[in-house]
Amino acid sequence: MNTVFLNGAFLPLEEAKVPVLDRGFIFGDGVYEVVPVYSKVPFRLDEHLARLERSLAAVGIGNPYTREQWRGYIAALVARQPFEDQAVYFQVTRGVAKRDHAFPKHAQPTVFMMSNPLVPPPAAQVESGAAAITARDNRWLRCDIKSISLIGNVLLRQLSAEADAVETILFREGKLTEASSSNVFVVKDGTIQSPPKNELILPGITYDVVVELARANGLPLEFRDIAEAEVRAADEIWVTSSSKEVLAVVRLDAQAVGDGRPGPLFRQMYRLYQDFKRKVMRAGRRESVSV
Ligand SMILES: Cc1ncc(COP(=O)(O)O)c(C=O)c1O
């Protein structure tokens, strides 16, 4: 029996019900987060809560809970699951109101949380790398908001699913943005590169961890606009997300990336990421990156 959280109560998934006039259902009017949990310890929870606060502020939904309350509810949800490694999903919608695009005056935000087993990429995929395809980034222009309106991302992800690939890497006006549900890094001549954070990409929590690890270990790193041709000529391509962690893309649109195997900088970053995770788990709390 999977225990979920709805508006302050813990209950079995089957009993969690939301009115059909919830604006999340009617308009996709809400924001969300996904936090990875290792050995029942949430990873980078403060950063996820900070991003939630930014998303809520950007769409004008009041935050129903303090950070302490969020932490408490998430800890209680995690404790109620029988598995160690989890992916905690939580969303806040603008609440239930008569259908009208303009904000309702008196609606209460709806809060739903669930936690599922965390499934990282299989070891064989980490070892051999994965395939990705590319597409034009035709989403809206506020991809920095973690909106539950994911139809654009869903349609783009479906393209790679149908091509048996793990991700769809996106270009807007000929420049790399991100992928359908991950951020993207490329490596050229020993330098790790990624697009700068702006309104066209989600500021990934994993992206930040990778950046911190690169800096702490003296790996050359650059944020800049990356042309589509540069991505196709890259020595390495990585996708990063809370569930994929850091994963090497070794085939892009059926062409080999570099020599077609995960590159040396990927191997180094993967090891750094796993070591950092273990350190955080041992400490039982968030730690900053140190060499
Ligand atoms: C569009 C998009 N970009 C990037 C990411 C990676 O973000 P994070 O590292 O915080 O999981 C996600 C995660 O779901 C995403 O949906």
Radius of gyration: 19 Å
Ligand inventory reads: pyridoxal-5'-phosphate
Tally of DSSP β-strands: 15
- Contiguous low-pLDDT stretches (5 residues minimum) are none
Q: Please identify the oligomeric state.
A: single chain
Shape: globular
Beta strand %: 25-35%
Q: What is the averaged pLDDT score?
A: 96
Please describe what this structure looks like.
The chain has helices spanning 23-27, 45-59, 67-79, 123-128, 151-162, 205-216, 228-232, 264-283; strands at 3-6, 9-12, 30-38, 41-42, 86-93, 110-117, 130-136, 167-172, 175-179, 183-188, 191-194, 221-223, 236-241, 245-252, 255-256. By secondary structure, it is α+β, with helices and mostly antiparallel strands. Strand 8 (167-172) and strand 9 form a beta hairpin. The radius of gyration is 19 Å and the shape is globular. Pyridoxal-5'-phosphate (PLP) is lined by residues 34, 153, 178, 181-183, 202, 204-207, 240-242.
Blueprint (SSEs and pairs):
Layout: E1 3-6, E2 9-12, H1 23-27, E3 30-38, E4 41-42, H2 45-59, H3 67-79, E5 86-93, E6 110-117, H4 123-128, E7 130-136, H5 151-162, E8 167-172, E9 175-179, E10 183-188, E11 191-194, H6 205-216, E12 221-223, H7 228-232, E13 236-241, E14 245-252, E15 255-256, H8 264-283
Parallel strand pairs: 7-8, 7-14, 11-12
Antiparallel strand pairs: 1-2, 1-6, 3-4, 3-5, 5-6, 8-9, 10-11, 10-13, 13-14, 14-15
Pyridoxal-5'-phosphate (PLP) binds next to helix 6 and strand 13.
